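Expect chain and fold; thus:
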Amino acid sequence: MPVFAIRRPRPWRTLLRFCALACLPLAGIALAGEIRYPREEGGNPYPFELLELALSKAGNTDKVVQTPFRMMQDRALLEIGLEGGAVDIMATMTSTEREARLLPIRIPITKGLIGWRIPVVTAERRRLFGKVSNLTALKGFQAVQGHDWPDLKILRHNGLRVHSVSSYDSLFNTLSSGRVDYLPLSLLEAHHALKGRKGLVIDQHVVLHYPAAIYYFVNPRNTALAETVRRGLEACIADGSFDRLFYRHFGEAIAQARLSERTVIELDNPYLPASAPLERKGLWFRPDEATRRQLDRLH
């Protein structure tokens, strides 16, 4: 005769079920009136703030919320491409491959500054690039980049030796360990990224440059959101609020980089789509007199 066990309620199981139900919106169910943006590793708040500004300029009242957990870039790209994924919009560097899978809003939100990259080195090797004046000389050193960064392919295309790692913290750990010579980071992030990281400094001699753009991307079916954000960004550009926010976030980093005192090593970027609005000069950063006037206003 079979014996049927009577299962008593277990508080911890009830708690787990409650937590699972509570977390459903985080796993891909969008709440009405919310636009979901990925919480990024080592992220700067600028893309999030610009998105909020653009939506307000476009008359959109939806609330932009960040995912409660941090996402690697490739995970966020996967989520945004899914039907019912956990992300509605994200800011990331464009490439031909990404534009084939997702819907880009073709306004470079950081004015191409992502393509101005300064080397981070260990403190004891701060003069490593003192005699480097061209790409040929730079090829004698090994860099490190994220495995899912488009920059990895760009650097390798130009003949540079680059070691790839799978996480943001690994970039700095690999450099500190001496396994590589330098970590090229954009002006957007270099100074911010070194806060609290002892033994690493920013090189003062060279800057790498290649044409590159960070766009907002959405799911290809989310054309309404893309159009709303595009209209909002154009309004920000027209009334000057775009530039004010940009220089408020990055003006100090640009000034500290002292680009006029560095050797500029130009690189080719074959992965920048031909659709990039390079003809709109005002959308792109250049270290010229106009930029200096913008920086002067900050001081």
Observations:
- Residues 1-28 have pLDDT under 50 and may be disordered.
- The longest helix spans residues 223-239.
- The two ends are 87 Å apart (CA to CA).
- DSSP finds eleven helices and twelve strands in the chain.
